[in-house]
């Protein structure tokens, strides 16, 4: 479902990762630069989902405009009272040539899986050349 591979880690707590999202029908990956705590707030909100302040939880890295080198949006929503949940993925590498891609797709799941994702993601630490997988 989600894989984060740390490609490069430098001495000032910046790193380059490849983040990959998979559903039964779709797949997308994106290389981005990040910081050690980039997922912490998002992960904490996932642990409390959907009982936090909002029924929608979002993680955004970059901006969806031409000034940014990439854009990543992960949006988590409850779609029915029985607890069916959707993770909506949007990746855009913002390439200016024929390598450009923009991918949007849902991953259907359940609230308990989202809560576990938060618990695992809050513990994630970038280690060069290692891959974090969820589910394990």
**Main sheet overview:** 4 strands, antiparallel
Strand segment tally: 8
Strand order, biggest sheet?
Answer: 3-2-1-8
Q: What share of residues are in beta strands?
A: over 45%
Mean pLDDT: 93
CA-CA gap between termini: 9 Å
Rounded to the nearest angstrom, the radius of gyration is 15 Å
What is the helix/strand order?
Answer: EEEHEEEEHE
Query: Which spans of ≥5 residues are poorly predicted at pLDDT below 50?
Result: none
Classify the helix fraction into a percent range. Answer: 10-25%
Outline: globular
Tally of helical segments: 2
The SS-based structural class is: mainly beta
Question: Your description of this structure?
Answer:
By secondary structure, this protein is mainly β. The protein is built from 2 helices and 8 strands, in the order βββαββββαβ. A 4-stranded antiparallel beta sheet has the order 3-2-1-8, covered by helices on one side. A hairpin with a 5-residue loop joins β5 and β6. α1 (40-48) packs antiparallel against α2 (111-121). The longest helix is centred in the last third of the chain and has 11 residues, at 111-121. It is globular, with a radius of gyration of 15 Å. The model has no long low-confidence stretch (mean pLDDT 93).
What's a quick, concise take on this entry?
The protein has 136 residues and is mostly beta strands.
Q: How are the SSEs placed, and which strands pair?
A:
Layout: E1 2-9, E2 14-22, E3 27-35, H1 40-48, E4 56-62, E5 71-78, E6 84-92, E7 102-110, H2 111-121, E8 131-134
Antiparallel strand pairs: 1-2, 1-8, 2-3, 4-5, 5-6, 6-7
Helix pairs in contact: 1-2
